[in-house]
Amino acid sequence: MSVSTLRLRRRAALAGAALLAGLAVLPQARAQSAAVWPDRPLHLIVGFPAGSSPDLTARALAEPLAKALGQPVIVENKVGAGGNIGADAVAKARDGDTIGLMINGNLTIAKLLNPALRYDPATDFAPISLIGVAPLVLVAPVKGPGADARTFLDAARKAGNAWSYGSPGVGTVGHLGMELLKARTGIAPVHVPYPGYSQVFSGLVRGELQLSMLPPALAQTQIAAGKLRGIGVTSAGRSPLVPELPSLADAGVKNFNLEIWNAVVAPASMPPTHVAKLAELLGAIVRTPEMRAQLFQQGWQAVGSAPEGLASRIKADTQTLGAIIRAQNIRVQ
């Protein structure tokens, strides 16, 4: 064998050894990379304008999350279509450093209401953490009938379709919540959609409407001012956000539990290790006394769940409200 052949074989052996060594180090390098993620700013997308409830929650979370990650957390408002434009931006993100704070509708029934939606809540997101929950409040004019929730609902049943209820639009939680209540109680008020909650409130005060479901912060303000009457809350039991009102379930409405909520999710493409890291940090942040108090002031009962808890809530609410959407063939363009 020639000297040149020996040299070639020796070079090949050394190259093979180097390759094997590199392959052995690769998993360790990947683990180290995952451990230091993120190594650049994290983008937190909100599908609603500055000053809105989702925006306020996102900005409350951004500072402590940035401190925990050691990187800035930049809140970006991508507004429109009831939060669906922002949700679509999160679903399509592939930079590895984008997450989103969304409301329940974006993560549950959006595709059922509008099949042409460009993202699919069931497949395009990785749940991270359920942040806060709140019931809706069933309200009526101050001079509405009945001494309590039971007698009020009895009066509603007797009224049939002579009563009307208002919501801020077709497919909103106020609309779907009332349709769910109708299905569970046998009441039959006619739906009157309005442009927003302020017009619903005016309709109630003027006596054009006999009932509606409002977010707790709005309802409490009007109840305290003596302009509306609170009937009950839509959570399974009494809510600390509206402790003076019974739940509709306690008033005899069986299997009734409906809450509005917000949550943080990632694109489905985000590595599970990154999702787990964010879930652990956000859960710890949301459960601090300071953040609980801040969310409470915004009208939310703090949760800070694990990804599995958020996934379960998404599935349950999609099934509950999806049944109403399909039964009534409700669509939003």
Integer average pLDDT: 91
Strand order of the largest sheet: 2-1-3-10-4-11
Tell me what portion of residues adopts beta-strand conformation. 15-25%
- The SSE string, one letter per element, is HEHEHEHHEEHEHEHEHEEHHEH
Number of helices: 12
- Let me know the largest β-sheet: 6 strands, mixed
What would you give as the CATH superfamily of the largest domain?
Bordetella uptake gene, domain 1
CATH topology of the largest domain: D-Maltodextrin-Binding Protein, domain 2
Shape descriptor: globular
CATH architecture descriptor name of the largest domain: 3-Layer(aba) Sandwich
- Going by helix content, strand content and strand pairing, the class is alpha/beta
Give the tally of structural domains.
Answer: 2
Number of β-strand runs:
11
Compute the gyration radius: what is it? Answer: 26 Å
Are there runs of 5+ residues with pLDDT below 50, and where?
12-33
**Helical content, roughly?**
40-55%
- Assigned CATH class of the largest domain: Alpha Beta
- Terminal-residue CA separation: 79 Å
Could you describe the 3D structure shown?
- Helix 7 packs across helix 12.
- Strand 6, helix 7 and strand 7 form a beta-alpha-beta unit.
- The longest helix has 34 residues, at 3-36.
- Strands 2-1-3-10-4-11 form a six-stranded mixed beta sheet. Strands 7-6-8-5-9 form a five-stranded mixed beta sheet.
- The protein has helices at residues 3-36, 53-69, 84-92, 104-107, 110-113, 149-159, 173-185, 197-205, 216-224, 272-286, 289-297, 307-328, and strands spanning 42-46, 73-77, 98-103, 125-135, 137-141, 164-167, 190-193, 211-214, 228-233, 259-267, 301-302.
- By secondary structure, the chain is of the alpha/beta class.
